[in-house]
TrEMBL record:
<protein>
    <recommendedName>
        <fullName>ribonuclease H</fullName>
        <ecNumber>3.1.26.4</ecNumber>
    </recommendedName>
</protein>
<keyword id="KW-0479">Metal-binding</keyword>
<dbReference type="InterPro" id="IPR002156">
    <property type="entry name" value="RNaseH_domain"/>
</dbReference>
<comment type="similarity">
    <text>Belongs to the RNase H family.</text>
</comment>
<keyword id="KW-0378">Hydrolase</keyword>
<dbReference type="Pfam" id="PF00075">
    <property type="entry name" value="RNase_H"/>
</dbReference>
<keyword id="KW-0540">Nuclease</keyword>
<keyword id="KW-0255">Endonuclease</keyword>
<dbReference type="InterPro" id="IPR050092">
    <property type="entry name" value="RNase_H"/>
</dbReference>
<dbReference type="InterPro" id="IPR036397">
    <property type="entry name" value="RNaseH_sf"/>
</dbReference>
<feature type="domain" description="RNase H type-1">
    <location>
        <begin position="143"/>
        <end position="305"/>
    </location>
</feature>
<feature type="region of interest" description="Disordered">
    <location>
        <begin position="58"/>
        <end position="114"/>
    </location>
</feature>
<dbReference type="InterPro" id="IPR012337">
    <property type="entry name" value="RNaseH-like_sf"/>
</dbReference>
Length: 320
């Protein structure tokens, strides 16, 4: 994806040139970069970590000023933003504070979300529309601390030659697939979160979408106590709430003693559930009909058409 596509969604800030914007990073007189809202180099609430830029200042301040990273590069991609003439570094960013990749141990599992009626839609039930910065989150109509995220995965030529998978999730109320606001999406990587080679498949894309949604923001910092993931994937809902309990006990093997497929993503997903549980937030999964998930579905299919991505990449949403 081009840099402008990510910037249009507020996926990361514009960089030191945005020092007058209290929602982005600020460059201090000594060259250090901190988050605008809180003045921190590493900020859990903003999901930002600019500590890697301190090394550039110490080693060569002139080089830092000429080629300062705009902010956190996604997968180490190199590109240039015309209005600032600054270049993103050819390297992956360091882990965000509190969002390191971790394997779940079985201490916590997501639960199933039970709507009051099987016919009520996500738009009807999560009609609270609570504002955060310039975003309008989908919140439960009776509980503003309950957030809805809609996820989906897609794979072109699934199970055939040359499959290409993509994932997407809806994180705030945009205007649909023609407007990128509110939708985050990406290609499924050729390697898993822990460096293992992986296949392109719809099941992996579905799991990847949920993981990306959970890691996108410091949701507790927006005062949410529960995140409800709405997905049309039975594989994701049943796998994470039921099957995974047996897989953990059996050392990630099935009853037939075969290795569990996509175990790296399952472990990563459970790791996210455990991490949020430690911060006092619960994760629930709601299986919805495919026709209720049109925006995420269309975005995932579009993402699957994009360029191949080799290494695992992070998509961290800044305040938008």
């Amino acid at each position: 994806m081009p840099l402008g596509w990510y910037l249009a969604q507020g996926l990361y800030p514009l960089g030191p040139d945005s020092s007058d914007d209290d929602e982005g990073p600020c460059e201090l007189p000594d060259g250090r970069v901190v988050c605008g809202p809180h003045g921190l180099v590493v900020c859990g609430k903003c999901c930002s970590d600019y500590s890697f830029m301190d090394e550039d200042v110490d080693e060569d301040k002139d080089e830092h000023e000429a080629h300062s990273p705009a902010s956190l590069p996604l997968g180490g991609m190199r590109t240039q933003y015309p209005s600032t003439n600054r270049v993103l570094a050819d390297r992956s960013p360091p882990p965000f504070s509190g969002t390191e990749k971790r394997r779940g141990t079985g201490r916590a599992f997501p639960t199933k979300f039970c709507p009051p009626s099987p016919t009520i839609t996500p738009a009807e039930l999560f009609a609270g529309r609570r504002a955060w910065m310039r975003a309008t989150r989908y919140t439960h109509r009776n509980d503003p601390g309950m957030l809805l995220l809609l996820t989906d995965g897609a794979c072109l030529n699934n199970g055939l030659a040359n499959p290409k998978a993509g994932w997407a999730f809806v994180h705030h109320a945009g205007t649909g697939t023609d407007d990128p606001d509110g939708v985050a999406q990406g290609r499924l990587e050729a390697k898993g979160p822990f460096g293992d080679d992986a296949i392109q498949s719809s099941n992996r894309a579905e799991l990847r979408a949920v993981i990306a949604a959970l890691r996108f923001r410091h949701w507790v910092g927006e005062n949410f106590h529960t995140v409800v993931i709405a997905t049309d994937s039975e594989y994701v809902v049943e796998g994470s709430t039921v099957w995974a309990k047996n897989w953990v006990q059996n050392g990630w093997r099935t009853r037939a003693r075969a290795p569990v497929k996509n175990s790296d993503l399952w472990e990563m997903l459970l790791g996210e559930v455990e991490r949020w549980k430690e911060e006092g937030m619960d994760i629930q999964l709601w299986r919805i009909p495919r026709e209720w998930n049109g925006v995420a579905d269309a975005a995932a299919k579009k993402a699957a058409e994009g360029h191949d991505v080799d290494k695992w990449t992070e998509m961290i949403g800044m305040a938008v």
